[in-house]
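Record Protein kinase domain-containing protein, 306 aa.
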Amino acid sequence: AHRDKPGSCLAAYAFDLTDEASVLGEGASGKVVVGKDRKTGKEVAIKVMVKRKLQDEDIAAVSVEVDAMQRTKGHPHVVELFAFFDEPDAFYLAIELVRGGELFTQLASGDAYTEVEARNAMHQAVAAIEWCHRNGVVHRDLKPENILLTEAKRSAAVKVADFGFAKTIRPGSHPLTTPCGTPGYVAPEILKSAGTYGYGLSSDVWSLGVLLFILLSGEPPFYLPTTSMKTGKKLKDEREREAEMFRRIRHGVYHMDNAVWTEVTPEARSLVTSMLTVDPDERPTLMQVQRHPWWTAKLEGSAPLR
Ligand code: ADP
Ligand code: MG
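=>
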């Protein structure tokens, strides 16, 4: 795309940054503001990452973020990168503006989505990430803050954003079918990871499983617990509670005994359970997820998807 020569200030030239009032969001890496394309007058989101606030590894991550977005261009449920500027003081990413805010905000009300709403949103998010995987990109930071809505309502279309933590898999090769190295010499674990959804792709499936759990029940499967699962003792400080949460994640210890689950179809519960499989080799791929019966199950007031 438009990469500038040092000092040419293309970002300021091509886009007007609007004022403080139009901050769309703030994350670990900087802030996202509304900008305007000078030529077309179209509004865009501009992610600004000020260099003096970045560590060396953050700077390396910016080029991965840009590369990941360029590779995943062209999907209706992935935000599109229009332009990237490497200015003396900051990096600027001009991104398709998604106006409905974060999925996080919709969830913050505390109510679960209806199963129909959950299925629509999830269907799009799964398609988006399956597309990323097919193009050699692992997202690695899927959470409701990074999933945006085209309008501020639960039935709106979703778009996956924030490739700031993404990893890309060898350029130009198909991640799932091309083992690296000369075939006769290649180690079994390389074949294994290439053949069985390796390179971390399965971790996106887990995160989407956590998201699906939250959509259906209104609460996360893993959160800071107050008692130890081993000893039954009360946990006092934050650090102990966090360690306990990680222990539960490692063992896949969560429960579906909230009353809301009795109103969820067995197909939905089965999909959540399979996506939250602890062993990444046993966890389904997104292609397998897309073949799950939930998508075509009869839900009240909704036609089967796909
Ligand atoms: P970080 O890596 O700092 O988390 P993000 O890319 O997630 O940065 O952006 C931070 C927040 O800005 C998002 O959670 C969202 O609220 C908002 N945002 C990001 N991209 C867009 C966009 N394309 N359209 C609208 N809002 C956006
Ligand atoms: Mg983010």
